[in-house]
Model the fold of this input.
Amino acid sequence: MQVVGEINAIREIVSAKRQQGCRIGCVPTMGALHPGHISLVEECSKHVDFVLVTIFVNPTQFGEGEDLGKYPRPLEDDLAACQEAGVDCVYTPEIAALYPESYDTWVEVGDMSTILEGDCRPGHFRGVTTIVAKLFNIIQPDVACFGAKDYQQQSILRKMVRDINMPIEMIICPTIRESDGLAMSSRNRYLSTEHRQTALCLSKALEMGEQRLKSGETDISTIEQEMLKHLNSYSDVRPEYAVIRDPDSLNELENPQPEMVALIATYVGQTRLIDNRRITLKNP
Ligand code: AMP
Done:
């Protein structure tokens, strides 16, 4: 497994592989890898001959007062996990190489970036779409894999790729969970033992939303209120949103429809967690 930090070096490696006829797959991450990330690597390997993982804690997607400084960076462990997963190459760029002092070019998807996560974390998606566009330009992958765990992020990135005609196949992989239902996240390691237990409130509230829809409740805002009430019933839980939306546009819904997505963002203690659940109704 090659580990590369320089833009020119990664370009040379990829172009040599391409000349050999390899299809290139890319899995962008911020490191602190867990089995959710590894599942993306495994899926990616099914579609390409050369899997490249990027590890970069992207400063432009963190807002003021967020956890950029304390975000975990266990590089040695990450490289070992990549090696074990059969990754061909890891790209670990330096901040100064991707954002030199004069840097001032941004890739931004419109309205979809301003709601939900975009509303709670202004500028977040501008940072995400900019870094992913830059990584795509450097690597020029045929395929890229992202997790459904970050539901709005994958919607926005797929839209970016479509809207500006990037020739990249986007593969979205299911959320990997702990055995008790907590969605795996690099941020879970911030949780105290007690808050780790409390964090089950996200998956429970999502399940509750689905149950209420399946049992025939047709008032979406009533169900959203119930999900919020469930979250608020725990001490140290401070929800930012709990909603049921259209799974493609993420727009609000007047009534239940065959395909929906429930999305939650909440603080558990000082840790901000997100989760979501696709909901299918046979007879809405
Ligand atoms: P991150 O390192 O948090 O930026 O995540 C890198 C990629 O891994 C993104 O596409 C995430 O959606 C994906 N990912 C994170 N957690 C999970 C999970 N529990 N299951 C599946 N994919 C995940």
In short: Residues 29-30, 36-37, 39-40, 146-147, 149-150, 173, 175-176, 183-186 surround adenosine monophosphate (CB under 6 Å).
